[in-house]
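Summary for the funding panel

The consortium committed to producing paired sequence-structure records for every protein in the target list. Below we show the first two records in order, beginning with the earlier of the two.
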Amino acid sequence: MEKLKLRIFTLIFFISSVFFISNAQDVNALSCAESGGPQEQLEIYDGAVYGEIKQVKVDLKQEGFTGTKEKIRYILVEVERSWNTEVDSQLIIATNFTWGFDFKEGNKYLIYFSEVDGELSSSPCSLTIEMNDLNQATELFGEGYPPKQQVNLEHKMWFMFEQDIDLFIVGVVVFAAIFIFFMRVRKKKRKV
């Protein structure tokens, strides 16, 4: 009878683990309205920056423990010039992982951004332009603003992980519970 309970418990554990760990694919749709050229884009968004991409990291965001998971690509930009708003020498801008522009470290871009809930983000519908020369951007928008202060935000990119750490924590807890369970069963068998 004891073996049957153990087998049933193990079977239930493995079946529930498969359902818990399996990742369902979310389906998303994107619709962008025609928003015009670079000058019109500058009126739509909070600002634009020209600079070099220092780092690109993907982070997994989740609302609570069981909320939907969303991958967000963060880019660390070394700003050379900005328009519409003054910014620091480095910015971290969130981009959409699914549709966002495929930024390459070391390349320079003109990036439009908006501020949402205290976080800078670049819309997948915004016009992002790869440029090798600041003069191209100043021809479009004028002189703009130099960075207002020198900052280093590289340390904020350290704690961004693409993997779901919650599952690792749950796995460790489940493993510990199983280990304790088997140790108790062994201890009881020795007493008998």
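The next record, for a separate protein in the list, is shown here:
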Amino acid sequence: MATNGVRALTALADPTRRAIFEALPQAARSVGELAGEVGVSSSAVSQHLRVLREARLVMMHPEGNRRLYSLDPRGLADARDYLDQFWPSAIAAYSAALRTAATATA
């Protein structure tokens, strides 16, 4: 079973979904606004937003008869938490590479 962090990263692997996601930090937007900005149909944006919502990357806020979408910090935290598990080994490998380079030049 995929963790929420993996779901978030998987959802962002699609270039259209990533473009929709990247359009949201500035302000909450409607499906029509996102469709115009990303250059796909409103129906396609709605389908991509459903995947992003399931991954907890976006949330919907009703405003009158419109639905506005914005970033959901929970999904961003999930992705960050997932990636954080790899930092200790990445830093250790970097440190080892620095030591090797320093020894080679000494």
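Regarding this second record: The chain is about 65% helix and 10% strand. Residues 93 and 99 are 10 Å apart (CA to CA).
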